[in-house]
Design a protein that fits this description.
The chain is flat and about 65 Å long. The chain has 204 residues and is an alpha+beta fold. The structure holds zinc ion.
Length: 204
């Protein structure tokens, strides 16, 4: 006896992977050729489809407004008036100048006023903005602004450290070199003691 779900399975595509339009595949074949290889050799035959699907995943952040993750807030914080910090959040993004990977970690902190969110939501906001073509400076600012606008906290601090594939694998070829960007808002911008406290919690 088969259930309804079985009927939905396409034997040609049992994992229900997204279709990759022919023009996208052709573009990737062109790139392979431009790089100096033969897109018709066996090992590369399915590469255009795989690359197409991979880019759908790398850029899945375009499908949503990351602020959606901050829409469910808890207003009863039991008098908690200290910094909330999510440290060492690994992430991957892609640089908009070379479409090369950006890999690194982020530290995200805020000092709540009346609203707090489930801690995993901060990582979801990061991933929402990271899963787009990015520059690190803008990613840092977008994450901080999103928390600032939606949680109306007393302060936000975002620090991102990342390696850029366009710098480690091409150009000056400097593997291991990381770039650090930060954005401080509210009390972390205005009050040196608060900034020092959050930076030391982040391990700086
Ligand atoms: Zn780049």
């Amino acid at each position: 006896m088969s259930c309804a779900a079985d009927d939905d399975i396409d034997p040609e595509n049992p994992l229900n992977k997204p279709d990759v339009p022919e023009n996208v595949q052709a573009a990737i074949r062109t790139l392979i050729e431009w790089a100096g290889d033969d897109p018709s050799r066996e090992g590369l035959l399915d590469t255009p489809k795989r690359v197409g699907r991979a880019w759908l995943e790398y850029c899945e952040g375009y499908k949503e407004d990351p602020a959606i993750h901050l829409s469910r807030v808890f207003e009863e914080v039991g008098g908690y008036e200290e910094i909330v910090l999510l440290k060492d959040i690994p992430f991957q993004s892609a640089c908009e100048h070379h479409m090369a990977p950006i890999t690194g970690k982020a530290h995200i902190a805020y000092l709540p006023d009346k609203k707090v969110v489930g801690i995993s939501k901060l990582a979801r906001v990061l991933h929402g903005f990271a899963s787009r073509l990015q520059v690190q400076e803008r990613l840092t600012a977008e994450v901080a602004d999103c928390i600032w606008d939606n949680l109306e906290p007393q302060g936000v601090a975002v620090v991102i450290e990342a390696q850029h594939g366009c710098m480690t694998g091409r150009g000056v070829k400097t593997p291991g070199v990381a770039m650090t960007t930060s954005r401080m808002m509210g009390c972390f911008l205005e009050d040196p003691r608060s900034r020092k406290e959050v930076m030391s919690l982040m391990g700086y």
